[in-house]
Structure formats: structure tokens, C-alpha cells
């Protein structure tokens, strides 16, 4: 989209609608100070002069453009900007920042106009001389997927501030240029809490949780105090890694700072403790909250459900409604998960029906997945299959995979073979499904079937991803791959493992043959 040049003629200018004068409301005499009797007209003269002050047309037009951008009306904002230029009104830096921000919020719609607007800003020299405009251009390109253009604009800025640095780092992180983001961060002349949060939060969003925690430790050494956004990102990393020790340290840090009443931090702590298996700690955080939101209740309901406390999950689900909160899709996911883990088939179907009929919530794929899991855990595999076949949306590998796992538990090879056709269409490269099918064959003694699956994997070039486990000791994470002896204390670890295995056998533990055979297959 090209921008119109400034071609307004005197005739066109005369045809422009006149701006109405700004009329300030006169204050109520009962609420004002009486004028000085020696200068009876001083106050009225001041008001008269102020009411006669004309509105800057650029401010008026920019305000209208901003209103449209805030309401998601990017096309109308662009059209208004074009009318502004045709009217001969010159935009200022706020006009450009407003439009670039609007384009950034609607990448698919705004990228073409954003590029044209950048050309106009470049013509005026605003993208290099004005740090606000330059930063807005950087943000716009980054959110539209053109982070390389962002870097060109960033490098061309004559003066950079912390916001321009942070925006560029954030753009690199979100577009997968992690190394570039780290280099920029290290080149920053001065880093604030936002700078650290952008980097740490970027690693969390990329699933690189260990790196996020390492940079958080660097932040602590730097002396920069984290803000609540930083803490939320770090808590999320602890939740995904299961690093309870660091999570407890962060909780103590929060109690000493001014974040103890921050609802978002409390909700994050509830989620972290639940995912670390410490539902008791999660409940303590919940009960200490002076104010709770729907997210707080949902976190507890889901936490109880996934940790096997079905009764408490359903109790909180009902208590939440008594407290005046209406359940949403997440609430019902927690309730259905609780019913599934507890084998409450009829209760689960009742909640599913109420969700649709009473609460008017359209079930999503995770809700259908809960029903499939509900039937699967109860051994009602054909009912679970019917749910998959009648779902209004295409099932994903998680939904079908849960039924496939139930086939192994129930020894249903025929259904497992049918499900593999589903899974092959969804994602033929997932190794875990093939391994599971091979183990189902092996459990039934059908080694020819297990060998056939293994040959299929070789033909498709699918390799089994090595499984690994991790353990946290003194806030350090130690990872172990099957058969791994690279750890510095490997000799001591394996000797301890042999001792534990010996003691288990003395207690009567006998490993199943399927475990040995499956390990050989792996």
C-alpha cells in the first residue's frame, strides 16, 4: 500500500471541515475560589484565552487513529491516516508509533502497510533519529516475522535506549534467534529488570527451562532485583523441570518481598507445587490468598485431579460455584480428569453433559480426550473408540494414544492395530506409538508382530528417542539417559542401584519378562 504524497491545494484546504473550538466547562461557582475583587475580570479573561486556544490538528487526527487501533480497527485507522495526509495534515512521531503498534498487533493484516509506513518514516528520517519511532518499527517487524528487518532498523538507530534494546532482544527470542538475543543482551550498556525478564521469559517460552534458570542465577549475581514477571517465568520453569528446591527458595523470596499478595504469582506457585506433586503446599498458598480468581480455583482443581485426589478436586469444583465463580472449559477439564483417575464413569459423563447443556460450553478436543481416557481407564475400549469416531473435530495423537495405551493394559491387539492407522495419518514420525505397539505384541508373545513394527520403523527412518530421567539435588538438575555412564558419580550411582535392586528382590520383587524384552527392543 503506497502512501499519498502531500498534494493538498488551497482549494482543498478551504474545503476541510473546520475544527470546533474547545469549550471548557465553566467550574461550578460553589466549588471555586471567588475572584479577587480588585481584579474582577482576571479569572474570566484567563478562561476566555484558554477557550480560544485552537486544537493542534495533528493531535486530533492522531487521537482518532489511536482510538481505532485500540478497538482493533486497523483498516479504519489506515484509512483515517490516508485522509489525514490528503487533508494536508503532517503526522508526528506519535502518529507513527500508534500505527506501527497497530500493525504489530495484527501481523497478517498490517505487514504490508507497516512496510509502506516505514518507507515514509525513513523518508522523514524518523526511524533513525527518533528512538520511539525506531523502537516501534523494530517491534512491528519482529511481530510480523521479519526480525532481520528489525535488526537493520536497530543497527541504524543513532541513539538507543533500554526499550529499543529490550524490544530487539525480545524479537530475536520470539523468532528463534536465541544466540543473537544472548549476544545483544551481553552487549547492552546497562541492563534493567525488564532486560533480564525478556531473556529469561524467552527461554521459558522456547522450552529451554534449564537455560532460563541459569540466567536467573546470573541475574541474582548481577544485583538486579527481579520483578513479578520475572518470578512468574522462573516459577514456570521450575514447574516444568520439577525443581521443587528452587521453587521453595523462590516462595521464601516472595514472602520477604512485596509480592506475597500478587494474585498472578500465587496462581503460578499453586501450579508449580501441583506439578511437583506437592498438592499440600499448593493448598497452603491457595488458602493464604486474600483474593482469588477463577484461575486460582482452576489451578487447585486441576492440581488435585492430576495428583490423584479426585474427591478434593470435585469438592473444590462445587465449592468454587458456591463462591460465585462460573466454571469454564479448564474447570471442566479438571473435573473430568478427576473422574477419569477415580474411575467415576457415570459422574464424568454427567459433568460432560452439564458442561454442554447447562453451562453452554462447547467441548474442545481436551474434553473429548478426557472422555476417551475415562472409558479407557474403565476398560470400556469400544465406547472410547466411538467417542473418537464421533468427535466433531479430528482427534490428535494424544487422544488416540491414550486409547492405545489402554489396549496394552487390556491386551487388545486388534484395536491397537486399528488405532495405529489413525496415528500414522496424524503423525507417522512419532516413535513412542510404534514402541508401544511393539510392546503390546511382545506382551502377547507375538514376536513376529514386534519385529514387524521394528522393521517398519527402520524403513521409515524412525529412531526411538532415548528416555531420560532427572533429579534435583541442591537446586542442581542431574539428567540420566538409559544406560548412561557419563555422570561424574556414575560408579557410585550404579553401585547404589545394584544394592537397591538386590534389596527389592529380597522383598519378593520379580520383574516381568515384558520389561526385559521391551528393554531389548528399545
Automatic annotation (TrEMBL):
Keywords: Membrane, Repeat, Transmembrane, Transmembrane helix. Residues 22-44 are annotated as: Disordered. The keyword Electron transport does not apply. Pfam families: E_motif, PPR, PPR_2. PPR repeats lie at residues 57-91, 161-191, 192-226, 293-327. SUPFAM superfamilies: TPR-like (SSF48452). GO terms for biological process: RNA modification. One of its GO terms (molecular function) is RNA binding. The chain crosses the membrane at residues 228-250. NCBIfam families: PPR. This is PREDICTED: pentatricopeptide.
